[in-house]
Amino acid sequence: MVSDLVNEKRDTATVTRAERTREGRTYLPYCDILERENELLIHADLPGVRTEDIDINYERGLLTLQGRVDPRREDRRFLMREYGVGDYHRSFEVGEGIDASRIEAEVKDGVLTLHLPKTESIRPRKIAVRSA
Amino acid sequence: MLANRYGLPMVDRFGREMDRLLHTFFDGAMVAPRTRLFPAVNVWEDGDNLYAEAEVPGMSMNDLEILVVGDELTIKGRRNAPAEEKVAYHRQERGCGEFARVLTLPVPVNADRVEATLKDGVLTVTLPKAEEAKPRKINIRNA
Question: Which of A32, A58, A129, B68 lies 20 to 30 Å (CA to CA) from residue B52?
Fold first, then answer.
């Protein structure tokens, strides 16, 4: 099962606390996690984050994505305010079945896509049946 | 409908608690966030313009339609579901489908000069106020 491959890190507090140096709010980006034959994909909505402001780290089984958003001017005269603006942060536990050294990322129109290749050993293989 | 994240801040100080809350929220009922309005819109103004900003990640200008008719601003479009076979979803929080928001503008605008930009999934619509709606400085004469 894939829950063994990628799991959302439920308790991010211990990981994030030390690194938080900026003021303001941090949001969990909405994510899709889907599985292809040879890889897992994570799509994360990071609207307003420039490519150079996205940090993705993998360390000891923990994949962390972070997006920095420039604080917007608070002196604006808001007539309607339906959402807040702030940084993004989310972590995922990555299991043994993922080849962490080959994780790749791309971003387009505010959506980050992470490719997590499965290790050879867990890829589905077709076993040829010989007639005896 | 798409889900949006307003009202669900993960404040650092309460990070642990909020995180758990969010998980309950997402794991328990995907129905709930999908009934929310999409996209969420922030509107502000200065002396010359109204500004409407919306987060529409994953969309290009071709996916969006922006209309100003009378005192109404309409933002509509669609976010396509990835058409891919042999894919198993393990988590799906990002919505897809058609959406439309209609906002009533507080002052008359010059519809011919409305401009929209889209950058990194954030749409910004600039609506120049009609002349009669702009603030005027009143000169005081010495009597």
Answer: A32
Q: Is B12 inside a domain boundary? A: no
Q: Across the interface, do A27 and B10 touch by the CB < 8 Å criterion? A: yes
- Domains, chain A, ordered by start: 2-119 (2.60.40.790)
- Written as tens digits, the pLDDT of chain A (132 aa) is 344 566 665 444 333 433 444 567 788 999 999 999 899 999 999 999 999 999 999 998 899 999 998 877 667 889 988 888 889 999 998 888 899 899 999 999 999 999 999 998 777 777 888 887
Q: What is the DSSP string of B7-68?
A: T--B-GGGHHHHHHHHHHHHHH-THHHHTS-SS-EEEEE-SSEEEEEEE-TT--GGGEEEEE
Range of B44's domain?
38-84+91-133
The ipTM of this complex is: 0.77
CA angle A69, A71, A75 (to 5 degrees): 155
Q: What is the CATH number of the domain that holds B107?
A: 2.60.40.790
Q: Verify whether the Cβ–Cβ distance B10 to A25 is below 8 Å.
A: yes
Q: Is A79 on the interface with B (CB under 8 A)?
A: yes
Kindly report the nearest CA distance between residue B143 and chain A, in angstroms.
35
Residue from the list B5, B57, B92 with its beta carbon closest to the beta carbon of A111: B57
Q: How close does chain A come to B39, measured CA to CA in Å?
A: 9
0.90 cut: is pTM over it? Answer: no
